């Protein structure tokens, strides 16, 4: 049994679905169901005795103690976070609450639970903290990609809150001996991605005939990884990572935002042509850049490959095709997540 926090979100849900399909070991998912959490992401597990869903907050210490005592997991995989940079600029408070205080509470609950385990279970226990490459800050155009030794230089409230959580996790290993592992991953894309982030936003806006907003000059470079490859990387680290260590996970796919958007438009032109025969690229609109927008992130994932034998299964071309096709095939999911709280937020942003 493992406990997964944030398992109703984008990466967490992909992880839980893949874990149950491929490992078969039971999972307890703890998720607050913020605007980003969606029970429908785990709908295919309804009635499956290997999955238990608990709605709750990782800042709730009593709930964490109770869940750990009741389910006695052999590992915690911690995805729960506020994850959207734009939201962190408009309202950083939730990011500090969940990403910093929440991780602290989870570490404390894990420590107390782990201290009470019998020796053999204590040795096997793992706390895997899922983090981001954004903690390393912005990379100059020709600089080598981020290794695990790169200094932390977070620039947004989101990345600063994740950096703080990474440091807490590290300290709980060095101070208390809690068996932790941390992964820092590049930008994910794939099925179940909430349409506030670049790739699903572009796909859904294109199909809805809306503008495709690009920040600044669109030359911001990100390294992209198909979400299923991130999930396989986390499984590998959980299985074979060295305690207290950090692993960078990335896809060796550096691309400028504008090129990503053009690639998606070309795929949509092929798979679902516009009725007027024009390209979706006509809908591209440049908007004012985000404050403090990092120019480039790039991950050096050679440690994952060299030490743990992991590498991504998808290229960007194969992964983005699967992603666009998934959004074309799952319009009901898109409509569902675009209702309610999300719609209100979008209206406020673009009013
Ligand atoms: P997401 O926003 O899609 O999902 C986050 C989930 O956490 C949601 O289901 C939400 O309901 C839940 N949650 C939020 N606050 C909570 C709380 N207080 N208690 C319990 N649950 C809570 O995020 P994501 O993109 O799936 O990212 C998951 C993790 O991976 C995050 O820690 C993020 O920093 C990290 N990460 C994301 C990316 C990326 O490209 N998306 C890349 C690297 C690392």
Short description:
By secondary structure, the chain is an alpha/beta fold. The protein is built from 13 helices and twelve strands.
Report the end-to-end length measured between terminal Cα atoms: 46 Å
Helix content: 40-55%
CATH topology of the domain at 2-188 and 226-251 and 298-314: Rossmann fold
Named once each, the bound ligands are: nicotinamide-adenine-dinucleotide
Gross morphology is: globular
Number of strands: 12
Round the mean pLDDT to the nearest integer and report it.
Answer: 94
Examine the secondary-structure arrangement and name the CATH architecture of the domain at 2-188 and 226-251 and 298-314: 3-Layer(aba) Sandwich
Quaternary structure type: single chain
Radius of gyration: 20 Å
Q: With helices defined by DSSP (H or I, 4 residues minimum), what is the helix count?
A: 13
For this structure, what is the CATH class of the domain at 2-188 and 226-251 and 298-314?
Alpha Beta
CATH-level-4 superfamily name of the domain at 2-188 and 226-251 and 298-314: NAD(P)-binding Rossmann-like Domain
Which sequence of strands runs across the widest sheet?
3-2-1-4-5-6-10
Strand proportion, as a percent range, falls in 15-25%
GO molecular function: dTDP-glucose 4,6-dehydratase activity
Keywords: Lyase, NAD
Domain NAD(P)-binding: 3-323
EC number: 4.2.1.46
What does this structure look like?
This protein has 351 residues and is of the alpha/beta class. The chain has a domain at 2-188 and 226-251 and 298-314: NAD(P)-binding Rossmann-like Domain (Rossmann fold). The protein is 44% helix and 16% strand. It has helices spanning 10-22, 61-71, 85-90, 93-115, 119-124, 157-176, 198-207, 227-240, 257-271, 302-308, 316-329, 331-337, 341-349; strands spanning 2-5, 27-31, 51-55, 75-78, 126-132, 180-185, 187-189, 212-215, 221-226, 246-249, 254-256, 284-287. A 7-stranded parallel sheet has the order 3-2-1-4-5-6-10, sandwiched between helices. The longest helix has 23 residues, at 93-115. It starts with a strand and ends with a helix. 44% of the residues are buried. The model has no long low-confidence stretch (mean pLDDT 94). Bound molecules: nicotinamide-adenine-dinucleotide. Nicotinamide-adenine-dinucleotide binds next to helix 1, helix 4, strand 5 and strand 7.
């Amino acid at each position: 049994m493992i406990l997964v926090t944030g398992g109703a979100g984008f990466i967490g849900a992909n992880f839980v679905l893949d874990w149950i399909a491929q490992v078969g070991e039971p999972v307890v998912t703890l998720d607050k169901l913020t605007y980003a959490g969606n029970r429908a992401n785990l709908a295919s597990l309804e009635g499956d005795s290997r999955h238990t869903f608990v709605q709750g907050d990782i800042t709730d210490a009593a709930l964490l103690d109770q869940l750990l005592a009741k389910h006695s997991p052999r590992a915690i995989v911690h995805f729960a976070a506020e994850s959207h940079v734009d939201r962190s600029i408009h309202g950083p408070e939730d990011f500090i609450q969940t990403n910093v205080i929440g991780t602290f509470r989870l570490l404390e609950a894990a420590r107390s639970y782990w201290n009470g385990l019998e020796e053999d279970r204590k040795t096997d226990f793992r706390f895997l903290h899922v983090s981001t490459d954004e903690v390393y800050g912005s990379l100059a155009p020709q600089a080598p990609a981020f290794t695990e030794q790169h200094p932390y230089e977070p620039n947004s409230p989101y990345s600063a809150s994740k950096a703080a959580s990474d440091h807490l996790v590290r300290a709980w290993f060095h101070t208390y001996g809690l068996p932790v592992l941390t992964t820092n991953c590049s930008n994910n894309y794939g099925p179940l991605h909430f349409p506030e982030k670049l790739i699903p936003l572009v796909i859904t806006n294109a199909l809805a005939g809306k503008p495709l907003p690009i920040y600044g000059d669109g030359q911001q470079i990100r390294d992209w990884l198909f979400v299923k490859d991130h999930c396989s990387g986390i499984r590998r680290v959980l299985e074979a990572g060295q305690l207290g260590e950090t692993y960078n996970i990335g896809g060796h796919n550096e691309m400028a935002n504008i090129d990503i958007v053009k690639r998606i438009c070309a795929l949509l032109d092929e798979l679902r042509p516009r009725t007027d025969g024009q390209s979706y690229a006509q809908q591209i609109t440049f908007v004012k850049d985000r404050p403090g927008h990092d120019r480039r992130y790039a991950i050096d994932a050679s440690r994952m490959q060299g030490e743990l034998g992991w590498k991504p299964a998808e290229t960007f071309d194969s992964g983005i095709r699967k992603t666009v096709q998934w959004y074309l095939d799952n319009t009901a999911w898109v409509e569902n997540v675009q209702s309610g709280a999300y719609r209100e937020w979008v209206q406020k942003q673009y009013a």
